[in-house]
Write a structure and sequence with these properties.
Helix 4 packs across helix 5. The protein contains seven helices and twelve strands. A twelve-stranded mixed sheet has the order 1-2-3-4-5-12-6-11-10-9-8-7, sandwiched between helices.
Length: about 280
């Protein structure tokens, strides 16, 4: 297996076989596209997205396509190995990939890759406003403490799951929140709720309703420690579906870290299904 410059014919054949249009690179990311050659035959296309994230080099396996007549012959695994060698040779400490969790071919190709997180979705369905809780818009007085708490929590989980140092994870978390909420509570498309039972705050919920895929995205949901295991997680998730319905969205989407097995189990019991698994493999130089 060799990486070569792809021919126009090969690229056109790949695009004709693509279910959705290719995603253009974002920010300073660059997509390197290669032809996959086995002997004298062009057998597929490989694309690797490279760039930096918080001053670290990153490499993402953006596309891997093998011509139908050459599939089930080990060429996919050979292409992944070539991608790993290329990424390592260009200074990336890991290669990341987004897998389709119900695709056996994907799971077989990337079984050695560690799962970092999953996107899970559920249709809005017949969502109704939950009655066991009350949702109040977050106030400016509540926003500061919530932000500090959430930045700390996000930093801890990213340090654990993605190998950042505590300092790197904290800096990354601060930048992420600043990018997502540049105007704080007034940031367009976002809702931040304090969830109460009686006068007691029992949870908080952060929703984004303007994603182009038609889903409301849950950026953050947390039940206070002393109220966990009492059904409030389920009620707060019902609140998210109802708010999605109010905004005319098709469904609700969230990202859950693989280390959070309790939350993953809850989402599955509620009917959420995983649509994407984000995985990575550490590379040796």
């Amino acid at each position: 297996m060799r990486l070569t410059a792809p021919s126009d014919t090969l690229l056109a054949t790949r695009e004709a076989d693509r279910a959705t249009p290719a995603t253009p690179p974002r920010g300073t990311a660059v997509i390197e596209r290669f032809g996959l050659r086995h002997g004298d035959t062009e057998v597929g296309v490989l694309a690797i997205r490279t760039g930096t994230e918080f001053d670290r080099p990153v490499a993402v396996l953006d596309d891997l396509w093998i011509r139908p007549e050459h599939r089930r012959s080990g060429l996919g695994a050979a292409a992944v190995a070539e991608a790993e060698r290329w990424a390592s040779g260009h200074g990336a400490p890991r290669l990341s990939v987004a897998c389709v969790p119900d695709d056996p071919a994907h799971l077989a190709l990337f079984r050695d890759y560690q799962v970092v997180s999953r996107h899970m979705v559920i249709p809005v369905g017949d969502a109704v406003e939950p009655t066991a809780i009350r949702a109040d818009p977050m106030t400016e007085a509540e926003y500061g403490p919530w932000l500090a708490h959430s930045v700390t929590g996000f930093a801890e989980v990213t340090a654990e799951s993605q190998g950042f140092t505590p300092e790197e994870a904290t800096d990354r978390a601060k930048q992420v929140f600043a990018q997502l909420l540049p105007d704080g509570l007034a940031t367009e498309g976002h809702e931040l709720w304090m969830v109460r039972q009686g006068d007691d705050v029992v949870a908080h919920l952060w929703l984004f309703h303007d994603a182009p895929d038609g889903h409301t995205f849950i950026f953050d949901i947390e039940v206070t420690p002393d109220r966990r295991g009492t059904g409030l997680g389920k009620e707060t998730m019902a609140l998210a579906r109802w708010r999605a319905a109010v905004h005319g969205r098709d469904g609700v989407k969230l990202n859950v870290f693989a280390t959070n097995e309790v939350a993953t189990g809850l989402y599955r019991r509620l009917g959420y299904r995983a649509t994407v698994e984000f995985r990575f493999k550490a590379l040796t130089g």
